Amino acid sequence: MNPTRAEISFSKLEHNYNGIREYLDKISPGKRIKICGVVKANAYGHGIREISSKLISLGTDFLGVANYDEAIKLRSIIPDANILVFGTLIHSKLKPETYVARLQNNNLIATVASLETARFLDYYSGKSRKKFRVHIKIDTGMRRIGFDAGRALNNIEQVFKFKNLEVGGIYTHFATAEEQDTKFAVYQLHKFIKLLNELKKSGMEFPIVHAANSGAILNLKESLFDMVRPGLLLYGYYPSEKIRRIIDLKPIMNLKSKITYIKRLDADTSISYGRKYFTKKKTFIGSVPVGYGDGIWRSLSNIGKVGINKKYYPIVGAITMDWLMVNLGVKTDVKIGDDVLIVGSENGEYLGADKIAKILKTIPYEVICAVADRVQRVYL
Ligand SMILES: Cc1ncc(COP(=O)(O)O)c(C=O)c1O
Question: From CA 164, how far away is CA 115, in angstroms rounded?
């Protein structure tokens, strides 16, 4: 069996979830703020089935996904969770009434970010005589989707008039909540609050108001409202380096493989495609069957490290599709079959997605989402 696998720890997921729960309860003692666990993109690469089932067993109130395909897949696993779809409704190949009936049968909660979507869902839900549950999306500055906050009042009034929609919530999304400078996030928050006040004056209230992603949960306690939508925090990472680390987190995924081949090379021998690395001395080189086909960035060639038996070893030469090579030194205790930590943390070795993201000049989200489908997920 291929030794490359992503070990995913349910107890660490529970630790992170409980950390968020306790923080929310401390900030808001009288009121239980709901949690929408964000499980889009295959639960950030961790496996939507297993992660969602665990989150629901921990008491998660909603699950958030990016699109209707993810939502329908999720519904087949979890019959009774509240599933909120963040994305737009793109018309399918099915006839509209068949499509809307399918979404209705799956009991999904749609995001309404335009009057067209509202009209479409209302019209076809009318035919099935079942109200479609929706949350309204407000654009306060992300400029992705949503009714523009400054001009949303009339549009939302229209949405409320649709008889076949049940408006269960309203939300916005922050563009910079994880940054140390909270100026723009506060600006977005104020725009959202101003709109909520105007809506209230006009008699429109919402059972669930939500805004906070991971960054806002840590940085902006005024944005917690009735529900928060953490993604990255659940998987054990802070969304940026400078953010307040007020919730203790543990990365839940360890991407691991094994040393499957060791050789001793003479000095001045090149390694891998393109000959970008030459041994300095007689050196032991270990080969590990993991590469960019598994989601390891090729740009870690010659600069990344792996962990073996509580020590770090440099990746040498170009990372290939299925292999990477590691410099084990002029003498070595490393043996064929030894475990290799590539991403994650174990036995005091730390190779977290945040650390790797820094080398790659990207964000930890991208590092964990990149773990390819062919990597077996093992749940501990
Ligand atoms: C609408 C929405 N809410 C919440 C999240 C979760 O974000 P994070 O992983 O930063 O908590 C996302 C992810 O980007 C999102 O698109």
Answer: 14
- Element holding 336 (H helix, E strand): none
**Domains, the chain:** 33-235 (3.20.20.10), 253-379 (2.40.37.10)
CA of 280 to the centre of ligand 1 (A): 46
Catalytic residues: 40, 273
Q: What 3-state class would DSSP assign to 374?
A: coil
CA distance 173 to 191: 12
60 C-alpha to center of ligand 1: Å? Answer: 15
C-alpha span between 201 and 126 (Å, rounded): 29
Tens digit of each residue's pLDDT (9 = 90 or more) over 306-320: 999 999 999 999 999
Q: What is the pTM of this model?
A: 0.96
Sequence-distant (6+) residues with CB within 8 A of 340 are 256, 257, 258, 259, 286, 288, 290, 306, 307, 308, 326
d(CA 29, CA 25): 5
In angstroms, what CA-CA distances link 296 with 90, 271, 342, 351? 32, 18, 9, 13
**pLDDT one-digit tens code per residue, 86-96:** 999 987 788 89
* Residue from 335, 334, 327 nearest 267 by CA: 327
Q: Is the Cβ atom of 307 under 6 angstroms away from ligand 1? A: no
